[in-house]
Fold this sequence. Notes:
By secondary structure, this protein is mostly helical. The protein contains 16 helices and 4 strands.
Amino acid sequence: xxxxxxxxxxxxxxxxxxxxxxxxxxxxxxxxxxxxxxxxxxxxxxxxxxxxxxxxxxxxxxxxxxxxxxxxxxxxxxxxxxxxxxxxxxxxxxxxxxxxxxxxxxxxxxxxxxxxxxxxxxxxxxxxxxxxxxxxxxxxxxxxxxxxxxxxxxxxxxxxxxxxxxxxxxxxxxxxxxxxxxxxxxxxxxxxxxxxxxxxxxxxxxxxxxxxxxxxxxxxxxxxxxxxxxxxxxxxxxxxxxxxxxxxxxxxxxxxxxxxxxxxxxxxxxxxxxxxxxxxxxxxxxxxxxxxxxxxxxxxxxxxxxxxxxxxxxxxxxxxxxxxxxxxxxxxxxxxxxxxxxxxxxxxxxxxxxxxxxxxxxxxxxxxxxxxxxxxxxxxxxxxxxxxxxxxxxxxxxxxxxxxxxxxxxxxxxxxxxxxxxxxxxxxx
Length: 429
């Protein structure tokens, strides 16, 4: 007689735990207080806490009745990322500010370990609890929605805190002192990329639509041009992939109504000619990048100025550009940090990541490509996936770990005995 074991309560609690720790992990990147000591405490204690929690969830799944029989699949992607971090660590020897380089390096390394255990937990659920409903895109979408909802409520309750004034006070953008509006817009885009898959699998469709509307509203309130473009590309991708004609028509009609207004308000800023000039120069980034290549790079072309450093001083400043502490382009950032050696490493790392995604099964491939869209667009204009510590790095690490493992059908005799004892339902009795 086969043994039937109901894992519903365990899986429901595990889903809640994974969602909460991902929500807290992303939340640790925000500046929740203007008091620097409180902010540091949240970032240090909070990040170490969620790292430990990620490991404990992984251990909990094993103790319940799984074995870590996963094997490396696309190993070159994480291996090259580790090589990038090794070069970053070595750069402490020549960094122009060792303390700052070390701080950034350890924060990036911490998120890497967090993602390692987080993704292994999901793979163990896939391997030993067939048919479970926990999905990475749902976790990412809901964690992003929860954080964005705080800002949407805050913008009405306390606009002085949750809005950031730009252009001499003429423009108010959602984010406040807590988060750069462009980064907050990117988080909304990540949330959209995740939750839109719940629509297609018909998971709480009405509630999911409400969440998506909140995310789109927040994206609009951030005034982030790059994030708007990313969201439109995600929607376009789904329209192209979907076989549901009615859903396609509904999405296209909604875009025809919304896009002209959004483009005029966010990208063209009501037709203000000065703002149009900003768009053409990417808000001054193009001349800054030109100066970095012409003046900064020749000083340290091979190995750069050290991890997350772009000059000998705290700021790079040219005669014809604004002073900047970061490059507003993740690839330029690596070039200045770690020189051409670092740039070559991350280019190949991305190539193997893309190859791993392209070779994944359909749902996983579509999900990861959708997540990459806002991350890559953000990488061309802000901190990005190889820049100073931000949650874009976290999401990118989740992506390449998600293609790095696969279940191993060959388990040891000791592991098989353990499974028979803990999970007799997997053996039909």
